[in-house]
Amino acid sequence: MENLVQEAIQNVNLQAIMPSLVLCVFGMAILMVSVFSKRGSTTHIAWLSIAALVVTGFVTLIGWNNPQAGFAGSVLLDNFATFFSMICIIAAGLTILMSDDYLRREGYPVSEYYPLILFTTAGAMWMASGTDLMTIFLGLEVLSVSLYVLAGFFRNQTRSNEAGLKYFFLGAFSTGFLLYGVALLYGVTGTTKVDGIAAYLMANPEAAMNTMFIAGGSLLLVGFLFKVAAAPFHMWTPDVYQGAPTPITAFMSAGPKAAAFAALMRVTIIGLDGLQSELTSLFWILAVLTMTIGNFIALTQKDLKRMLAYSSISHAGYVMVGLVAWNEIGLSAILFYMLVYTFMNMGAFAVLVLIGKKGEDNLTLDGVAGLGYKKPILGIVLSIFLFSLMGLPPTAGFTAKFYIFAGAIEAGYIWLAVLGVLNSAVSLYYYLRVMVQMYFKDPEEDFAWVSINGPVTISIVVSAVGVLYLGIFPHTLMSLAKLAGF
Amino acid sequence: MITVNHYLLLSAILFAIGTFGVLTRKNAIVIFMCIEVMLNSVNLTFIALSRHVGNMDGQIFVFFVMTVAAAEAAVGLALMIAFFRNKESIDTDDFNMLKW
To answer: Given A6, A126, B10, B33, which residue has the most CB atoms within 10 angstroms?
Structure first.
């Protein structure tokens, strides 16, 4: 008995969860600070949260090239987890920077907002480092439950309530599927560990034909595909993205999505490696479906947040192309793409945060008419982000797509790459339409309420520099992504 | 003689009832109850399979599922109350602000 306890303690290895541990401790401390602060003053809470993220970033970087396994092999902080954790930390930081003025403008200067973002980030980091379906599930839920609250954060706004409720119901529903999948896989393989499942598949290749195994694997994939908003499980995305507070929308499309892709990659590439040929043909169909549905519905949207929601669905489709390729360049391109997408999408949302009026009813295509003349600097940066989302050089969106499609071509999926490029061409239409409004329409408004200062400009500048730098010098990051891939 | 198959069948039926309820019901509270039925059918599956497989991992998983379900219930009911305050309804037909 004593030996068992000692063995269990030796198995813990706190080093493996140190980044999320630090973040959670900071989150709880900041929650306490906010209790003793004056009501309505949130600026210091925001900067404390930024400080927490910076410290967590340094702690995370210690884990680079220094893999730590812990908790009897259910957590593994390797380069892969470190890379995705850094993406989530960057996304959270940019979100917090664009939130402070926004919350005050919308009349909700409430400080619980910031700790909730930190807890979401901690959940995302568990998802990225989990090697047991149990830890992945827990990370997913810590992330989701905090996000339900954040999506419905504007209590007195029906739109925000509705976004929160819809996200909650569909999220909980998909969690049910995910869990049933885990339970069935456990029944067949006798373990919930990702490498345990892989070992079982290796030893019993005939298990792949077992009905219970197929059902379990499919249900598990449904749960993950819902979280990454891949078609046909994308229905919640536009509603939730439109109704949630804009910084939270930006965050959801970057951090949690990256974490969900991290968990999906680890489960499929490590755990279900034996089913590679079946999975790639499944992902082939889903990638094409996701790209096409996202792009074609985005063509009809007038609301900018909703348009960017459909665009984020189509980008999930591009990322899945890398999963179909299933080779070194394709998989490391996913890591590269998620970081680039964080910069370009959050930058675009930060501009929207800046130009919105209270209630944000002006964030439509007509609402940005003439923005390029009235606010030339904002026009230029929004154009950079839109060019990057289209995938035009010299922005990072181009290099990211280039690597993804290069991976697909190397693996022999020429048609998939062709369909991906055609889809990018379709997406030109709706991104360019925003720019046409900005530069070729007479301004209806003077945009006098837009003041270009405050922390939100930091997040715009950081995103713009990231997009341009990674577009012109992608090699350093790509070689890091190759080190982080499997 | 009750075997593991009976338990699996029962939990599959419960899961199907829950899924059907989520898809067909209109009242948000009833939908939420159906989701809980789904989660509990998963718990039943885990416990039955844990006994069948012969290790404790499944039973430990159940504790986590119950904890998470409780946290979700707290957040979900809070969201429903916030929605009810604004709309005086929790009927899913009244979730009609956001659509294309």
So the answer is: A126
Tell me the ipTM for this assembly. 0.96
Closest CA in chain A for residue B34: A173
How close, in Å, is residue A431 to chain B by CA atoms? 18
Residues A445, A451, A456, A461: is their CA dihedral positive or negative? positive
B15 within a domain of the structure (yes/no): no
Nearest-CA distance A173 → chain B (Å)? 6
- Residue B69 belongs to domain spanning: 26-94
Is B70 a member of any domain? Answer: yes
Per-residue confidence (pLDDT) for residue A209, from 0 to 100: 84
A176–B54: do the CB atoms touch at under 8 Å?
A: no
Q: Does A101 touch chain B (CB under 8 A)?
A: no
**Total number of domains constituting chain B:** 1
Please, what sign has the CA dihedral across residues A109, A112, A118, A123?
negative
> Which of A479, A390, A392, A478 lies closest to A434 in space, CA to CA?
A390
CB–CB contacts below 8 A, A to B: 129
User: What CATH number does the domain containing B53 carry?
Assistant: 1.10.287.3510
Residue B74 lies in a domain: yes
Does a structural domain hold residue B5? no
Element (H, E) at A354: helix A328-355
Cβ within 8 Å, pair A173-B35: yes
